[in-house]
Amino acid sequence: MKDLHKRIMLGIFFALISLIPVISLIIMPKEKIVRSEIENKTLAVFPEFNTGNILDVSFMQGFENWANDRVMGRISWIKLKNSTERLLGKTEINGVFITEERMMQAWSGYDSEAVNKNLDAMNRFTERHSDVPVYFMLAPTALEIYRDTLPESAPVASQKDFIRHCYDYLTDITSIDVLPALEELKDHYIYYRTDHHWNPLGAYIAYAAATPVMGYTAAELNRFNIESASNSFLGTLYSKTLDSSITPDIINIYTFTESEPEVTVTVNSGNSIEEYNSLYFREALEIKNKYEIYLGLTMPIINITTDLGVSSGKKLLIFKDSFAHCLIPFLSKNFSEITVADMRFINAGYDMFFDVNEYDSVLFIYNVITFSEDRNLVKLNAGQ
Amino acid sequence: MVFSSIPFLFMFLPITLGIYYILPRRFQNLFILLSALFFYAWGEPKYIFIMLASILIDYCAGLVMRKFDDKQKIRRAALLTSVIMNITLLGIFKYGVFTIDNINTIFGMDLNYPIFSIGSFQIPVKALPPIGLSFFTFQSMSYTIDLYKRNIKVQRNVISFAAFVTLFPQLVAGPIVRYSDISKELETRKITLNMIYEGILHFITGMGKKVLIANSIGALWTQIKMTQLSELSVLSAWLGIIAFTFQIYFDFSGYSDMAIGLGKMLGFNFPKNFDYPYLSRSISEFWRRWHITLGAWFKSYVYFPLGGSRKGLKRTVFNLAVVWLLTGIWHGASWNFFVWGLFYGVIIIIEKLFLGKILDKLPAFFCSFYTMFLVILGWVIFDTKDLPIAFGYIKTMLGLGENRVLTDSTASYALLNYGIILLVCVFASTDLWRRAYDYLRRKISAENPFQILLNYSAVAYQTGVFVLVIAYLVDAGYNPFLYFNF
Predict the structure, then answer these.
(1) What is the ipTM of this complex?
(2) CA-to-CA distance for A286 and A224, rounded, in angstroms?
(3) Mean pLDDT throughout B321-347?
(4) Which residues have a Cβ under 8 Å from the Cβ of B109 and sit 6 or more positions away?
(5) Half-sphere exposure of B361 (CA within 13 A, CB side)
């Protein structure tokens, strides 16, 4: 047939622009709210249709977000885009560096005014509780430890300098420097390859560095039995890039070889309280974000009581981000009661949850990136 | 609505084309109008009234001119009304905020921006004009002016006239289609397989230019533009503005290609808007190849009526200056665009006076270098926040700025991440690809099996580009609309 190739082109074009939307609509889940586990995000919902929304164009913007999120084969499209980008020589995709070994969350610097506000808030908190020792562990992320694997010119700020700045700024808070120990053991598997967290071994190194500063003795590593609960963990950085070139991560669980103490974990989500009798939430192994095995999702308050077999056990209060989650199991070997507060979810002051004076120590645990972007620590002084 | 978006591609386009192809011919113009109003309202629901006002004024002016065909004074009054009303709309909604800001600064006054209200419905004057204002007012004016000059016949059908002005492919970012370009097609048009095929090729090429090339390289400029001048190295400055040089070309010519392609799918032939402008060997030539329809508009409706180059040297220089200042501020209400227009005006006057003749005798590579150097400097003025930054940036490029460091890690990282895409840009802004393809077509006879291979590789290539475009649109990242100033 004459001009067959033209007819084929027409066929392809019209098939793509009409079949993709029709099939997308047909296979679209009926529920209003849909989560994309692999991307670790909730897909946009259909916008409300009314005159106000139309006049200020928010309906159209909402529609566009909804349409983008609900296109059939969305994940494959994104993967296609990201592999093209990598083919074109991009080393950074959606805020994530990808090297041969691993993915690392990008961080090019910080707003010193906002950071100093956080530090001021911590100083004020410490002044108010001068009889309780306060410690601060500012953990570097994989980006700092494995910076040498990136192109030299990559726009990466020094976390070492940032940590120095923060520690120098604080007045009565004892700093716990974990960077040198992590740096020294960087050849071991201490950070996840596809997630922005460190793993339990990285956390253990930090724990071993922290305990002497706080006046305790670390439980030796050889007392722990290491169980590989999963070797198919694809973390948050994978969700951002959907790049399959990096080996999936291993989820390890650390328990004492002889007589793991009994624990009770209460998780207060603000609306409900749930109780667990293990430091590891194994049901997380069934979901995509397997890091939740370490004390679950970030919640306002978590309480951990451990039967350490001593009459007057020590009590620890932690203010933290999610880096603390895989460190806390180790700390529970030294403190019979740990209260974990996440200021990102506590708005009306923490007094309703605990009294700081009842604790033997207060520990702030943050990673550099979260801490530099955090705007919630000022709430430490809410209502004071 | 913009072409490079999922709602356009997967909702508006299939529905519009589907209905359009089924509809009987006599309803097609009405359907074009309705779909174009939807298309426009999707991005500017409030300001659609300005477009409707412009259409109505020019349509009525046309009827008046027809009715009083032998009364020159009335015809002239109708023309003046149309032109003055359109320019007033531009003056208020495009230059209003800029003018008031400058009056307030210069005279220390405190004037407020006007708000127009119809009942409880309010249309405020914003800093940014309604989308496409500069395009549709110019298109609409081309009708009344040509009618006055008796170059075209009156359009009695208000739907056909409104369909011409709102014709969605060219509504928001050109090309500036004149009434005379498509007056015949408004009445009778035939849509052939060939036209739709060509339309699809243009559309996909344009999409590829915009989504794959312009957006990718634009990210580099966005990043460098944010750098403080005191921290900007010479090489970074050059890389940044070269990135914008490619971004604006692939973005703008991509939009024009998409418009031309969509026009063809609807049965219209729009004029060409870009002709490999970065291959030019003088600034005058550059402007004959860049945004061709705008230059042609100013030439026909400003430069020639003022006397063009036929009224002596002084008058020619004056006429050129007027045209180029207008061209400058057509691109937006700011001092940058004013100076940018002036910059080109001065160069073109100099080329006209003597430089053009000298350039003719110089080697081609030198002329290309001269042209691109000035064009790139021009883009600095065009796309920086204000004039001090523009001049500071140019100083840095020339090694005379605050920071005289030749290169830094930003520059090497940019080369690492954008090196390949930069090469693609250089290659794609020349006509090498086109010439190679045309050469092969001519050399290989129609019966030759290689001809079939060539045809199918073109189909495979276009399909590949289109699939990539969809992938880039789904993962909506950086996808700016650059013509909000126009």
Answers:
(1) 0.88
(2) 24
(3) 93
(4) B103
(5) 4
